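Shape matters. Shown next:

___
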Amino acid sequence: MQPSYLFILSPPYSGSTVLWQLIKTSSQVSALPDEGQKLPELRAMMRENPWDPNTTFDWDLIARVWHQHWSDSKAILLEKSPPHLCRVDVLEQHFQPAKFVFLMRDPLAICEALHRRNGMDWELAAQRWLFWLSLHLEASQKRPASHVVYYEDMVTDPGHTFKALGEWFPALQDIEHESAIEAHAVDGVQKRPLLDMNPRKIAKIPTRDRQRVLAILEKSAELVEKTPYAAEYF
């Protein structure tokens, strides 16, 4: 049986590790041991200007290395590396048949992570979120057969979220979404069931800095209005 490739496409700090860990609980899934871009054989190449869509990689080598870690006996071969969001066309060229799950998260939550973990200025963090949103919208709208998940839905209504995922891709109907998962969070690396970390993250942002982020977002309101977040912040 020819396996299908499943790629989780998202900005950094969107909860993709959580989604990845839960999807790989399915008996039909084989996942890489880490993000594909971080495997030792590939890290030096794939971490060089990863968010530049003009950066070229040796995709034959990448495919060989990934397949060394995947089990081809499984129906679904899972991968998630955030920079794939800027080269979806390339993934389609080298991995067939491919399916895509697009994941997006509240801009303030992502900006908080960029500021706390990368020391990024608040305005720059907001601009990065808008850049990733533009990639997300362009790629997902070009592929109406893909599936879109919002972090907030995943953590507040996982039953509905993973039921919808299984309806979209029936081989994923046995995902154990109540499993405890390990991921980075505002309070460090923790293993626990799904929990909405947005309120704690956003509460840590000083009012002045929150206003700085929202001022940048308002300048691109036409983009943000294509997401659920416009109703909350505008």
Q: What stands out?
A: The beta strands are 4-9, 29-31, 76-80, 98-104, 147-150, 181-185, 188-192. The chain has a mean pLDDT of 95. The CA atoms of residues 43 and 126 lie 27 Å apart.
